Structure prediction request, 552 residues.
Amino acid sequence: MSAVQSSPANGAAYDVVVVGAGLAGMYMLYRLRGLGFSARVYEEGSGVGGTWYWNRYPGARCDVESMQYSYSFSDELQQEWDWSERYASQPEILRYANHVADRFDLRPDIQFNTTVQFCAFDEADDIWSVATSDGKTVTANFVVLATGCLSNARKPDIKGLNGFKGPVYHTGNWPHEKIDFAGLRVGIVGTGSSGIQSVPVIAAEAKHLTVFQRTPNYSIPARNKPLSAADRAAFRKIYPEVRRFAREEARNGIYTEVPDRGALDDGDNARRARYEARWQYGGLTFMSVYNNLALDKAANDTAADFVRGKIAEAVKDPTTAKLLQPTTYPIGTKRICIDTDYFETFNRPNVTLVDIKADPIQEILPHAVRTGRKDYEIDALVLATGFDAMTGSVAKIDIFGRGGRTLNQKWAEGPTTYLGLMSTGFPNLFIITGPGSPSVLSNMIVSIEQHVDWIADCLGFMRARGLATMEAEPEAEEKWVAHVNEVAGATLYPQADSWYMGANIPGKPRIFMPYIGGVGPYRQICNEVAAKGYEGFAMTAAARPQKAAAMP
Ligand SMILES: Cc1cc2nc3c(=O)[nH]c(=O)nc-3n(C[C@H](O)[C@H](O)[C@H](O)COP(=O)(O)OP(=O)(O)OC[C@H]3O[C@@H](n4cnc5c(N)ncnc54)[C@H](O)[C@@H]3O)c2cc1C
Prediction:
């Protein structure tokens, strides 16, 4: 049952319009309903799940362990859902998203197959107009962008791509039916996380796989395995502490040991033993072996050397091994990948690695990929070329704020926000996991839940006090942007040409977009801002009567 469908008193159709029904939009709707707000969610896809709806490529799975990469807001939910593997596959995560939508009866307030194209703030009435691809326009007091950080698949601009005669697939917008690569010569462009996950699976099926690599990535074995009932039970017992730690203490929202020393505090043998133990354990926590890997280049080099050594051990052909070893950026400064047999896959006779840094792709021919030196004949092409990250999906919507200025105009030199939650000049417009918040540097469900809770609490606060508008103050935004840059500048992260920096998109301004101060400290900052009456946000009273407050 949809909770509240009455219109707000000021004539807007909804209290809140939410854009996107991924994990963020779904939880936002749940919270809004709980507070008695009327809400409408628009979703471009035909189902819920966002990332897990679109990224159906072979091998797609989460890289944060499923017992942690899951909602924590409902204890019943986390106790009843049985994850079958340490890292769930995309179909299982999509089933989970659908289960959540059904369990909390979210669908009645979600309009699928509908893209939000345009949002404009009417300064006279303090109301947003929201125009959608079905030709309709609705009004709302607030808009929440739950559009996702990795939801705008990036198709590379390669000469001749449209003339390719075989099928072309993008990992971030994969067909819903099973694609059969058996007997085909397949080319894959891109060796980021999606490429690294899909290469072993496609290689096992295809007649031949040619991997076109521009930049090699550091990847750690996932050591994925089935979870037994006993594994899940053991984890569930410690859930309260796991969730608390992830929210309050972890830098990245993941439960792990807190390292008590730096990499150079150990001698060679002890250090190697620690790296080896974590390598055998598998997964993203490899970067938590020491506390200074993101800060100190010499420390970082020890971890990078270790991983390069592992690649050399795994790959039989020394030339291929060398090409697969990253050398041009510190480990961890691009999102570290985790894999199942990625490097070993290059020992297969049906897999070829092509270094397109040294020998760039010139064009796509009807049946081949042409580099400067050779034509590689293929029957199907997979683009694992990632996303216009963090800002890409927001930028696709025409968002008009005060004075008719668009968000794209404001962000032309790079996105600026206060706390990643709001941008000056755009009142009553919230962003979930926006640039300037920990977002992609974290277990994103931890960050999503924190943002949603903060926004929901804020809306309850405003309603209880008859407040109509909220907007980031310019000074607060400037200070926050400076802080985000200062914190990033103290780390090794800006040394990599990563999508964190917008470096994968030609012409995109190079600024470090996520907040690297850690999810625990960030949460504390957000809580303090709220406790001080939303310090740094200007709030104005309603010009006309608001609905009576219905606090939970
Ligand atoms: C392959 C892959 C694996 C990942 N694995 C992990 C992991 O292990 N751990 C982790 O923490 N994070 C992971 N992520 C990041 C992941 O994106 C987040 O964890 C999380 O799913 C984001 O949820 P979201 O709702 O914010 O965004 P999304 O899931 O991206 O959902 C946004 C939704 O908004 C919709 N939308 C966008 N614009 C519009 C519009 N204008 N109108 C209507 N609808 C619109 C989109 O269609 C989409 O469904 C992964 C990402 C990818 C791509």
About this structure: The longest strand covers residues 137-145. Confidence is low (pLDDT under 50) at residues 1-5, 545-552. Residues 216 and 323 are 7 Å apart (CA to CA). The first helix runs from residue 23 to 34.
